[in-house]
Amino acid sequence: MTQSVPAPIDVAVGILMKPNGDILFAQRPPGKPYAGYWEFPGGKVEPGEAIIDALKREFQEELGVEILTAEPWCGVEHVYPHAHVRLHFYISREWRGEPQSLEGQAFAWQGSVQLEPILPATIPLLEWLDKVRYET
Prior knowledge:
This protein is α+β, with helices and mostly antiparallel strands. It has one domain (9-133): Alpha-Beta Complex (Nucleoside Triphosphate Pyrophosphohydrolase), CATH 3.90.79. The protein is 18% helix and 36% strand. The chain is built from 2 helices and 7 strands, in the order ββββαβββα. The strands form 2 sheets. The protein has a 4-stranded mixed β-sheet, with helices on one face. Strands 3-2-7 form a 3-stranded antiparallel β-sheet, with no helix packed on it. A hairpin with a 4-residue loop joins strand 5 and strand 6 (84-96). The longest helix is centred in the middle third of the chain and has 13 residues, at 51-63. The radius of gyration is 15 Å and the shape is globular. The termini are far apart.
């Protein structure tokens, strides 16, 4: 008997990038799968919601930040033990407000990434992201 793979969950993910190339990471809070792991902020896309709208909503709810502009960057599918996700990454260089920990999560601005552990779906993107951050 074959197991059916659940349909992937669409997730909007935002990479806030400062002019110097620093990017914002958030730490997954206690009680969630992979608690304590670092990731880019974001969250599930609601049914019928545009991905960019989900991104803006999540950043407002989690960090109190208003995304002004965001460019689609890449998409990644990853199967975790608890969920099959389709991650839609956006890079935002323009936002209003300073990130606040509205859901009790830690966050950190990073140039060269020194955080551990990093969420598995995020790790392969870091090298690729460096090319975007530091291209001349």
